[in-house]
Design brief:
Elements (H helix, E strand, L loop, with lengths): L4 E6 L3 H11 L5 E7 L2 H11 L3 E4 L8 H11 L4 E6 L7 H6 L4 E4 L4 H12 L7 H11 L10 H11 L4 H8 L3 H15 L4 H10 L6
Parallel strand pairs: 1-2, 1-3, 3-4, 4-5
Amino acid sequence: MPEPIRVLIADDHEVVRRGLRSFLATEPEIAVVAEAADGEAAVRLAEAHRPDVVLMDLVMPGLDGVEATRRILAVSPESRVIVLTSYPDDERVVPAIRAGALSYLLKDVAPDQLIAAIRAAKRGEPVLHPVAATRLMQEMHRPSSAPELTPREREVLALVAKGLSNQEIAARLYIAERTVKSHISSLLAKLGLEDRTQLAIYAIRNRLVEE
């Protein structure tokens, strides 16, 4: 009998992790080797267990799913990441794929479709929700000059350039601090930058900061 597909579940909601674990336990060809409640734990566990497939939530405390995906693939290149999110038209679709995610599904996916996606991931074959596929096609046909930023991303970028902390940006824009972190991760991925300093320089050079 072939070795089971080894799966890591990364989601900050325990009920989601329990549900996935219980469901996957009914499949003899799949073995859940670890669970993570945040992105940093997901990276540590991926490095320790080298799973075949990672089921990755995008919105998690601390390190979000986009950056966690990038880091997991750095420490465990053989792993395949399936984004499993609640949001069909999330602005993280393209950043997640750019970070190395293979597939993008919604949490309301049919059980048999999830199993099929895990099997496909083990073979290196992507499975994309139609909305994610549409976003990727739009990205491919977009002029390659400058990445398109959402209005909120532009606001966050401008405030980063002014030297505000995540907490200060959250207060200024009346949003959660974790949302600010998510926007910053998305900006870094879209712009191909590495840190806040580079974001600030980009904003100033492109005149995105009001005097």
